[in-house]
């Protein structure tokens, strides 16, 4: 049993990495229902994959998305959406920098 909570994904092909990069650059608002739960556990879903031959998309939390990303991309999803900030551990995928700066002293809203 491992204590590593940042699961490394299966090996991704160069084509899969390029496909993920393209989707990250083009994706806008999340199609994932805010109340949606991961298909593997009870955490909030942060990614969605629609596979060929399926009518409903698979939903995954960040941990399970990273754990199954190689297999999901190998299955050739019809469409997918992933939260870019959850891909920072995936080799070859450049995650856009997040701007979390706020004005003020950080203790108040001023």
Automatic annotation (TrEMBL):
Domain DUF7455: 38-76
InterPro entries registered for this protein in UniProt: DUF7455
Pfam families: DUF7455 (PF24254)
Superkingdom: Bacteria
Protein name: DUF7455 domain-containing protein
